[in-house]
Design a protein that fits this description.
356 residues; Rossmann fold; single chain; alpha/beta; globular; seven-stranded parallel sheet; six-stranded parallel sheet
């Protein structure tokens, strides 16, 4: 093993990196920080307050700016959350620009914010940015504003690398890995499962419709990211075999997913990766999903089946076949394709290539 690296890991300033996770980005950042630390690297995590203290990394606090009455009354004043995020990233990047090269070897940006990219030229140490979502105007602008971009980009899937090709060509694909020790195989059972954030783009309502059409009970779990969506589109479908189990921690969620016959994955957008797919496979649970985004990269016919986008009836029709898929094949796919070790080794190799 090469010498330990000193790594700054930048996470979301909006949601804590800790259980129960607000979404896949937080789960990924937690896993990456934990794995890099276990491999002997010194990791300092910039994340929202309340992040997991057992990571044994330094959490930088999110400071809200103290704005004057005149500034708060200005017509250009954004909402308080946006302003707090802006201020937090601005403070961090200015701190790293001052003397970061004395304290660290590399910065790995896993946030969705534009400032770590826009201010990268001010740093005297390399910056890696992982592209977790489709292009956004703020981030595209940050990339395009630099004649010679000092940032090394990675993408969580080949689909994401292609989506960013025009703005960030040459992004290296490093797929998100999961800890298959924590997501262990289950025996399956007499229900379907859906997990994820309860927001329109994740399509929980379509999973409920598909389960009803297929004649199977459905258990759903995840944070209520959009209460109005839940009240309008999901809650009316509860009952008659469709249950919402709440926002579960990893252990309880792994038991729920491992106890299911099939996991339904119903993105209503082009899913950048689909961590819930990898988690289901690790639990030995075959997947039935919509053919959107990167799902087709993760699944093979022996561990998952794909229906046309947004077609609940077509998804329901695949359930009987998916139930018959070999749970061992699902687990093997997770072990070989969604490996935590592969992800950590790829990122470490990039850090070592860039670090002085």
């Amino acid at each position: 093993m090469s010498a330990p690296l000193r790594i700054v890991l930048i996470a979301s300033a909006r949601f804590p990196v800790g259980e129960p996770f607000a979404g896949g980005l937080e789960a990924h950042t937690w896993t990456l920080a934990k794995t890099l630390s276990e491999r002997g690297h010194h990791v300092e995590l910039f994340a929202a307050p309340g992040s997991d203290p057992t990571l044994k990394v330094h959490e930088l606090p999110v400071h809200r700016p103290v704005l004057s009455t005149a500034a708060r009354a200005d017509v250009s004043m954004p909402d308080a959350v946006w302003m707090a995020e802006h201020h937090a990233y601005l403070r961090l990047m200015l701190d790293l620009a001052r003397d970061g090269e004395r304290r660290f070897d590399v910065v790995h940006n896993n946030s969705l914010h534009h400032l770590p990219v826009a201010m990268a030229p001010a740093l005297r140490l390399p910056v890696v940015t992982t592209l977790h979502t489709p292009p956004t105007p703020w981030l595209e602008s940050a990339v395009q504003a630099q004649e010679c971009c000092p940032v090394t980009f990675t993408a969580v899937s080949a689909h994401m690398a292609e989506a960013w090709h025009a703005t960030a060509p040459g992004a290296r694909v490093v797929r998100n890995g999961i800890d298959t020790r924590l997501w262990s195989p289950g025996l399956g059972g007499p229900y379907l499962v859906w997990s994820g954030r309860l927001v329109p783009e994740k399509g929980a309502h379509l999973a409920a419709e598909a389960a009803r059409k297929a004649g199977w009970p459905l258990r759903m779990a995840g944070p209520m990211g959009d209460p109005r969506y839940f009240a309008d589109r999901v809650e009316p479908l509860l009952g008659d075999g469709v249950e919402y189990m709440g926002h579960l921690g990893r252990d309880d969620l792994a038991r729920l997913v491992g106890g299911a016959a099939v996991a339904l994955v119903t993105p209503c957008w082009d899913e950048p990766y689909g961590l819930v797919v990898a988690e289901a496979l690790a639990c030995g649970t075959p997947v039935c999903g919509f053919d959107r985004g990167a799902l087709g990269e993760i699944l093979t016919p022996d561990c998952g089946l794909l229906a046309p986008a947004d077609d609940a009836a077509a998804l329901a029709a695949l359930v009987p076949e998916a139930v018959r898929l070999d749970r061992r094949a699902a687990r093997e796919r997770a072990e070989h394709f969604c490996s935590l070790d592969t992800m950590a080794e790829r990122y470490t190799a990039i850090y070592e290539e860039l670090a002085p």
